[in-house]
Amino acid sequence: MLAYMYGFFKNKRIVLYDTLIQQCKNDEEIVAVIAHELGHWKLNHTMYSFIAVQILTFLQFGGYTLVRNSNDLFQSFGFDTQPVLIGLIIFQHTVIPLQHLVSFGLNLVSRSFEFQADAFAKKLGYASALRAGLVKLQEENLSAMNTDPWYSAYHYSHPPLVERLAAIDKPDKKED
């Protein structure tokens, strides 16, 4: 990540790392990356992500409370009392499968946000510059260019370069 957006409402900021400027010597490519980040802002991706994390945090606290208050659960593990640390350990072990599903879902949402932000930059007329900038950044980061689609969907919050370039090159749908 060489640029990102954070903040809400009037306090939104775009952060550019100096490596972005060093790697993208062409001003048009830097502007294209900024247009991508503006897409995240315009489409409220930060707000949606923040809300999702708040809901997940609430659900985790609620789930821990259910485990902590379950006498039967502690007794099934051989405890007559309900030690807090044991309740936390039991909760962590029971929630692991759900965490994998939630992580996969969040990655899918994050990947769709990336495609939407790329489309926003494309709509502003920066498709070729964004394409060139993404290729340069990919070369510099030495990350995998074309990973298995299922592997990348599960493990990566950003789509691989090949998928992003294909989405940028895809013609826009014409409205009748």
Task: Describe this structure as you would to a colleague.
- Strands 1-2 form a two-stranded antiparallel sheet.
- The mean pLDDT is 85.
- It is elongated.
- Helix 2 (27-42) crosses helix 5, helix 2 (27-42) packs across helix 6 (127-141) and helix 6 packs antiparallel against helix 8.
- The chain contains eight helices and two strands.
- By secondary structure, the protein is mainly α.
Strand order in space, largest sheet: 1-2
Radius of gyration equals 21 Å
Shape: elongated
What is the averaged pLDDT score?
Answer: 85
Which consecutive residue ranges, at least 5 long each, have pLDDT under 50?
none
Number of helices: 8
Gap between N and C termini: 38 Å
Give the total of beta strands: 2
Structural class: mainly alpha
- Our estimate of the beta-strand percent is under 5%
Biggest sheet statistics: 2 strands, antiparallel
Helical content stands at 55-70%
Secondary-structure element order, N to C: EEHHHHHHHH
Describe the secondary-structure layout.
Blueprint: E1 3-6, E2 13-16, H1 18-23, H2 27-42, H3 45-68, H4 71-76, H5 84-123, H6 127-141, H7 149-155, H8 161-169
Antiparallel strand pairs: 1-2
